[in-house]
Batch of 2 targets.
Target 1
Amino acid sequence: MSDDVVADVTRGQLAGGVDHHESTLRSRSRGPFDGGPDMIQLLDPEGQRVLHGGAQEYAHHIDALTDEDLRGFYRDLVLIRRFDLEATALQRQGELGLWVSLLGQEASQIGCGRALRPQDHAFPGYREHGIAWCRGLDPMRLIAMYRGVDRCAWDPKEFGFHTYTIVIGNQVLLGTGYAMGVQRDGDVGTGDPDRDTAVIAFMGDGATAQGDVNEGFVFAGVNDSPIVFFCQNNQWAISEPNERQMRSPIYKRADGFGFPGVRVDGNDVLATYAVTKEMLDRARSGQGPSLIEAYTYRMAAHTTSDDPTKYRFSAEVEMWKLRDPIARFKTWLGHEGIADHDFFVAVDAEADELASNVREATVTMGDPEVADIFDNVYVEPHRQVEDDRAVQAAYAASFDDEGVA
Amino acid sequence: MAVQKMTIAKALNAGLRAAMEKDPKVLIQGEDVGKLGGVFRITEHLQKDFGEDRVIDTPLAESGILGTAIGMALRGYRPVVEIQFDGFVYPAFDQIVSQLAKLHSRSRGAIKVPVVVRIPMGGGIGAVEHHSESNEAYFAHTLGLKVVFCSNPTDAYWMIQQAIETDDPVIFYEPKRRYHEKGEIDVDVPPARDLFSANVVRQGTDATVACYGPMVRTCLDAAKVAEEEGSSLEVIDLRSVSPLDIDTLTTSVTKTGRLVVVTEAHSFVGLSAEIAAAVTERCFYSLEAPVIRVTGWNAPYPPSKIEEHFLPDLDRVLDGVDRALAH
Ligand SMILES: Cc1ncc(C[n+]2csc(CCOP(=O)(O)OP(=O)(O)O)c2C)c(N)n1
Ligand SMILES: [Mg+2]
């Protein structure tokens, strides 16, 4: 991509030239997308270790990691991207009803997910496949949901990972309430690393407009609840850019709710890990909530149903490609001698194997039983549901009889 | 060139355009309705042609969308808001029920809130959770709101304009799985009926089938098959479920003696129950059989792989008709 194109993008040309009518409203330009001087960054897009935006105070969390931990991050990043690409391909081939890609947001999610401890509890949206991965959820559970075969059929207690939530923002209040429960159980500030518990709730940039999200901030603030609000600012809410959702940076809003807010380079797995670790520790030790804005980019369409060419220029996507989260980390690992060629080759092979396993398991996945419709509607039996279960069964059986006759 | 072939989606787009051309106070707001033209493209090109002041891409907050639409209506505008999917209207429920529905009566008639809330409704598109709901009963149960469904391109074109001209708030349901069904519209011939009248879309003598929205096509298809099998069904597209055109229903049932009500929504405390009760009260002595309901099952909308077993289809409608005719 030429520098001119980048300059055009960063000058905010993308926002202009849409309508023929002069608006009486203020319109804001887009970009420059550099995250600004406050953004915490430990690894720049070229793979150089840096200390941007006050990163100094977080860097010690990286020093505490072993080389094996770091290689593990890389493996996670590559595998989750490969899984995601395979799921997108499966959707294109008609094997899934829908897929919601995390392409470009791998470092935000792996850095964050690896900072969680087993007793912590995460409240995802619908794009948190990397968090699910870190929580040990079988990715096929996600595939089953987007294939239309199942609901969110996992027990959140088993994984410390709540159901996916599609209604924007709902999960933020649930997470806040869960954190209030953790407080009441006395599972904060004991100093026991296996007991002290933090909650993390995920949301997108668009979601920050939603009432539930703001109410979650208020409740967590007044209760000093042990929760981290993790906002992946991928710059877009379907077709609407940040400018249509907000007038001040997301991380700065925390101040108004009475807790700290940090913007981190969401394409830098080290920075995302370090900042999330810091804020989770803070919550576990009883110092209350915080807001992390992971500054990143949605490289794919909003979902497989979306056509982003209708509302954004490819130059913007091209520019973000240069900040790829995996490329920079690989460069750094190689340069530091933490990982070598053989390791990278082995991870790629493992990714291919994962993809082929996912494909196989998807195309051979059975359909649900129709009678499942009536299961789990209530904990206890409900007369009208049970009546319909019987009516549906008799109706279905009437076709069997026809077949026999 | 007055007669045009259009899909329901295009007809809605054309109807919105006509309303905006006619009345400068009409404006549109919702998520992704501007530059993208909505996820179903119902508002496509309207922002380009009418500007950002009249077609507003809102922040992602349904309570905000509704509350500010009401505020703009108080200032003399006629907002048409889009709720992206049926299952996302609930954050706006409070504004709809507490303000939109009640302001006229609360102000003893001083205030009118002519807001139209467009909701793509229903299943059958292979979607994930919250994208396939039939939640009309909540709104029909809320006095102060009018609730209508379009089922074909001609109605889509005219009903959206009539809804916008209505001084009461209107919940305007669009059968999303039918968006791409085509029909001929004569845009020069004014609408045949007012917004709140039912339409007898097929004449018949043996039983009346009452339906609305996405089920109209299903019931018409069923009536064709029934005819081949020797029974004559009268199909009524109710179009409005609040108010309910009870006279058209009772006239038909008095003639046929049988009523089958078909809804995508489940039966328990739903519109089908209201229709059955209202007709039974008025036509008890004409009825040859109990009113039969063919509806979605009393259970949450299932994963899409089995949605076809949840939704009433041609066979289930005919099964219901058979049960009515068995008496
Ligand atoms: C209450 C509600 N309204 C609308 C939608 C439809 N919708 C799904 S995702 C989305 C945009 C979300 O944007 P953002 O919060 O930035 O998250 P991202 O998808 O970019 O990760 C919208 C409007 C929804 N799921 N829930
Ligand atoms: Mg976003």
Target 2
Amino acid sequence: MNDNNARRVVSVIVVNEASVLSRITDLFSGRGYNITSLTVAPIPESKYSRLTIVTSGSVRVIEQITKQLHKLIPVLRVYEHADLVEKEMAMVKFPANENIADISTLCEVYNGKIVNVGENVIIVMVADEPKRVDNFLKIIKRYNPKEIVRSGAVALER
Amino acid sequence: MQINGAQMVIEALIAEGVDTVFGYPGGAIMNVYDEIYKQKDFKHILTRHEQAAVHAAEGYSKASGKVGVAMITSGPGFTNAVTGLADAYMDSIPLVVISGQVPMSLIGTDAFQEIDAVGISRSCTKHNYLVTCAADLPRVLKEAFHIAATGRPGPVHVDIPKDVTAEIAEFDYSVVLELETYKPHIKGNPRQIKKVMEAIANAKRPLFYLGGGIINANAAYEVRDLVQKTGIPAVETFMARGVLSYDDALLIGMLGMHGSYASNMAMSETDLVIGLGVRFDDRVTGKLTEFAKNASVIHVDIDPASISKLVNADYPIVGDVKNVVNEMLELTAGVESKKYKAWRETVQNFAKLHPLAYHEDTERLKPQWVVQRVGELLGDSANISTDVGQHQMWTGQFYPFTRPRQFISSGGLGTMGFGFPAAMGVKAATPEKISINFTGDGSILMNVQELMTAVGNKLPVINIILNNNYLGMVRQWQTLFYDKRHSQTDLSVQPDFVKLAEAFGGIGYRVKTKEEFDAALKDALEKNIVAFIEVVVHRMENVMPMVPAGGSLFNMMLLEKKGDK
Ligand SMILES: Cc1ncc(C[n+]2csc(CCOP(=O)(O)OP(=O)(O)O)c2C)c(N)n1
Ligand SMILES: [Mg+2]
């Protein structure tokens, strides 16, 4: 990798305890590292949580991020790797007068569907690789989306 | 046994073998102070400012090698202590700092003297805790001491709400720590150590680059053996002064911004840097792309994050430096000291070309003379602290250090106000040694209230104030890089330092000549009470050599030869 600002995904396993998330985010802000997205949830039946952080930087910066994360006391493991299965979810709100059939077909292409139909709005969700979610969000612009929310990526190594 | 949280703090400190605590009480920590009143196992030294309590704990720790302990109250007590935490963090000093906090029921309500202490200390501690119930206290305190002292050492902050100090729970300090997520790497990789020794054997101009980590790891005597056995010359960082004795023939000197010509040139010419317990600080390396640019780099450090952070290590070894150096000592068979003879001579010639020196002045004392003179008179019998500024660099350059833990100074953070309280901590830890603090007319006023602590606790620190009527180091930069615009650095308006010391019950001297200085030092030693020796020194003296910030190590400004003005 000679790209100086490559996108990287870092997974961090931490002890579930008060302020552990601030320790992580403080480290990123304090040392001037980027966070593109960050997700966190407990790992079932354990005392740990898993964070998935999408960041960017040169090889040296990513190496420092990994080492500095590891130095934090409640951090059990840090994975930084290229070979990942990544998924991200997005939800989009459209005006109810848009073409529901078209939108629904599009969603299916991106592993999604319509999840709510109301009087004034319809809400859809898709779950796919972050790049494909980008695509989806580009394409649906023509249907006048009113609100978009993305979950941030989660990832597992192959 | 069932005891309250405050009693647990006392029991834990006793179990950890703490003999001295530095602190300052207040509302939120009063339950603990009540228990301090009732016990006789350790001494509590009341400083006159929380910052000083933490610096004193740092000095105590640096001189003794033990974990330093400070205790403070919530809110302003805690915020006053933050500079000390940051200082200890930057210099990897093991501390446990215990603060009171408002009761759990009031947390988050902007209660009186409430501040988010763990939020503030997070970025300047190795680890921190907000203890939410007394049942957690034994484990937390035990972890705090363990984390502070192991791996790369550092300060740990424990914040305890007042109701937790009153709450009763089971205290069992024999709890076995289960720190699944904290396992410092102590032993260096044996194969890598072998490769390192081969690289050393094959090098033509190897150079030891010795750092403060060696002192933290208590590895100075092992390093002395290694240097001796291999015959490889060595440079020390400011933080490593005393690792080698000043008269060790293989010690070139201190490197970096105010390092000696020979040290900086050796670093620029070496073909193999052997970095032990160092972190390639910018004050050491100068311009990174030019740093040791002909060399491969060996880097031994306990902190993986220090390795290849700034300078790529060709031979990284994560491990405790004592452990690794002991392994290296086993493998010196292939290293031939005589092979480096020409290199040693090259280095000696550098030193002959531009030795570390200064010019005497007929009218006023030179600050460097004062440092040298104290070295001649007291040498090994004194522990030396400093404040921050020119006087600090002159001390690093000119004092003849003979042993590790002799020199105590704020390196990473560069905290003015560190020296005096630190010197009190040093005295408390090593009462058999003389405790000298070289300070400046600026710095000394940043914790001058500690005169009272020193008098009250019979800590006869001798503060040698090198008075140049300037914030000298800043003035030097203004002279050199800001076209002599001496903005806000003139300290012509000054207290009467003699009366100041006397007002607190100490003793003061103001001296202008060598004879007066010798007499004052002798008298202060005899009186054995806290002293100010104000030495009127040359105002415009600059610390030389100097590598301008961001410049290359080999591009030094040098002492002007006598005569060329
Ligand atoms: C708390 C703090 N404030 C400001 C500085 C910036 N600073 C570095 S050296 C210095 C001058 C110190 O003056 P003095 O104590 O008289 O020492 P001298 O350089 O004159 O020997 C200053 C202001 C600092 N290091 N620490
Ligand atoms: Mg001064």
